[in-house]
Write a structure and sequence with these properties.
By secondary structure, the protein is an alpha/beta fold. It is built from 8 helices and 11 strands.
């Protein structure tokens, strides 16, 4: 695939935690990752590009960035340094291994020993809650601090799944938080399911989920408005045959 790394700035991060959000069910992973980047005003520190990636750029403050981006947040004595990796495209299965391996290598080079992957899973009931699993010798305390139910057996697909088993060879702990979401449309409301667990797992990483909840309500209103004409049109409701 020939992935190229573009470096922008060095924030001097110390033992940062890496958080990875590629598109998943309901787009919750990338929605949450981009929400953190925006609300915490994180700084672009690196980007990944390659000939097999979709041909587009993201314009932010009049600057063009590639499809996969890494942002940094310099914390303080009471806040953990963070590297956020996010993208808007879901890699093809044939490309997932190389992208996952490259992202892990870049995070390791940036000083990350712990990586948290954000993953969406299809919601089967309204009462379904997020779950967590971890791989690596030192991930136990971080997993327990989340307050989420632990998944001991199961399958994780895509970038997150590959990172889970590659992490050991990179000497890193990789944790995946799986949040139930609507598989049929973007689900910003479900993306709020990451916020409380992350605030417990990463010291000082706190954001107000209210804007995401407001966005979810707007999505709901738009869907209702789009459905109403069809429901009120006798011709649409007629049964034939």
């Amino acid at each position: 695939m020939g992935i190229e790394t573009l470096r922008y700035t060095d924030l001097g991060l110390e033992d940062p935690v890496g958080i990875v959000g590629f598109p998943s069910v309901g787009l919750v992973s990338s929605i949450a990752a981009n929400f953190y980047v925006s609300k915490l005003k994180m700084t672009p520190i690196a980007g990944l590009t390659g000939p097999e990636m979709p041909p587009y750029c993201l314009i932010t403050d009049s600057v063009a960035y590639p499809p996969i981006r890494m942002y940094g947040l310099k914390g303080s004595a009471r806040k953990r340094d963070v590297v956020m990796c996010t993208s808007e495209f879901a890699p093809k299965p044939d490309d997932c291994h190389e992208i996952a391996s490259t992202v892990l290598s870049e995070l390791r080079d940036l000083g990350c020993r712990t990586v948290i992957c954000l993953e969406g899973i299809p919601r089967t009931s309204e009462s379904e809650a997020a779950v967590i699993c971890g791989s690596g010798p030192s991930c136990g305390k971080v997993v327990e601090s989340s307050g989420l139910q632990k998944m001991d057996n199961g399958m994780i697909k895509g970038i997150s799944g590959i990172m889970m088993y590659l992490g050991r060879s990179h000497g890193m702990d990789v944790i995946t938080v799986m949040c139930p979401a609507n598989p049929g449309m973007p689900d910003p409301g479900a993306a709020t399911g990451f916020i409380e667990p992350l605030s417990k797992m990463v010291r000082g990483l706190k954001v107000d989920p209210k804007p995401l909840l407001e966005e979810a309500e707007e999505v709901r209103r738009r869907l209702e408005a789009e459905q109403s004409p069809a429901e009120n049109d006798p011709a649409q409701n007629a049964i034939y045959g």
